[in-house]
Amino acid sequence: MTTESYGDMLRDRGWSAEGSFEDQVWLRAVYGVIAVLGITGNALVMFTVARVPSLRSLTNMFIVSLAMCDFITSVFLIPLHLGFSIPVPDGVAGDIICRLLLSKFPLWTSFVASVLTLTCVTLERYCSIVHPFRYEALFTHRKAIAMIICIWAMAVLMNSYFFYIFYSDGGRCIIQWQSTVWQKFVGVANFCVIYIFPLSLMGFSYWRIMHNLHKSAQTMRQSTSEGRENQLSRDLLRARKKVVKMLLTVVATFAVCWAPNQFLFFSYMCGWNLDFSSWYYHASVLIAFCNSCMNPFIYGFQSKQHRKALRRAFGCSNAVGARALEGASNLSFVHTADVKEFHVNAMRNLPTPRNTEKATQNRSE
Question: Can you tell me where the transmembrane regions are (predicted)?
């Protein structure tokens, strides 16, 4: 059984020794700026979807869930990193405070929920573009609600070990592991479920999406050369560039923002003596927090339809913009119904031996 002082091991909670790195005013200011950006950006996403009926789609259910996760993360960032002091009483009350608040249980639970929601957004977009004919059977509003509930349940479960390792002792919080084997197991499980698995799934899914769009684009170009181009084909070919840009942004942002903190925490759980009050640990936490305030701009404000919806929600849109917005059913760059028609047209336009022979005869004539 290993026991460590909470104050010695987890100084990043905001109750630090005077003069330490984490007590720097500029560091707390940076935490505050990130928190304000996260609260504002994610609140705007939720407010816009709630105010504009045309945005209440299946895709946006996950977008709103993601915004809620990041909003909670940003809210709890303020008291836990800006120097607020909470006394730890003796007995059961002290244990509850240590396990629920000083352990950052709500913060890390919303973190995990955010990552799992990102994964669900990936799966939803993957099925929409790569398997459009199966999309409506796989994703319904009822199933989406069930997925969101499961996400939060799994996030709570992933952090439930906090209730077994945090205790109050003489007005302070301590961490007590039953064994080093159990500590390493928790570290490996968290690292795989929170980082490796989501990153691998997002990378694979988005590679398949881009590969699928590339093949469809080639088919459409071949059809265009034979004089069978239509407006839908041109629109989706242009949308392909936007899709690729967004997907690469999603994967890169997640990988970069989460990598430093996850590798440091994984190393600590496997036995490395990590200084939780060091500048490099706080840098990793700041970068991870940045993901919560960047998601609204990646998934929401990068969309022209969402920007119009935001203006309309605040009563700033003109009549033309409002009418155009009514035709937008979600925030994604490629709509499921359009992709279905895209695939149907692509299959119809595929050259067959008979069509090829006719085209050859026509050219020879």
Answer: 29-50, 62-85, 105-123, 144-167, 187-207, 243-267, 279-301
Q: Quick check: is 263 in a domain?
A: yes
CATH number at residue 258: 1.20.1070.10
Task: Write out the residue range of the structural domain in which residue 105 sits.
Answer: 2-350
- How far from each other are the two terminal CA atoms of the chain, in whole angstroms? 89
Residues 306-364: pLDDT tens digits? 677 777 777 765 544 444 434 333 334 444 545 555 555 544 444 444 444 444 454 44
Contact between residue 117 and residue 291 where contact means Cβ atoms under 8 Å apart:
no
Whether 364 is covered by a domain: the verdict is no
In degrees, rounded to 5, the angle at the alpha carbon of residue 223 between the alpha carbons of residues 222 and 227 is 120
Contacts of 344 (CB under 8 A, 6+ apart): none
Higher pLDDT, 22 or 277: 277
Q: Of the segments 6-15, 78-87, 129-138, which one has the largest average pLDDT value?
A: 129-138
Asked if residue 209 lies in contact with residue 339, where contact means CB atoms within 8 angstroms, the answer is no
Domain count of the chain?
Answer: 1
Q: Is residue 363 part of a domain?
A: no
Residue 284 within any structural domain of the chain: yes
270 neighbors 187 (Cβ within 8 angstroms) = yes
What are the pLDDT digits (tens) for 103-136?
Answer: 889 888 998 998 899 899 888 888 888 888 888 8
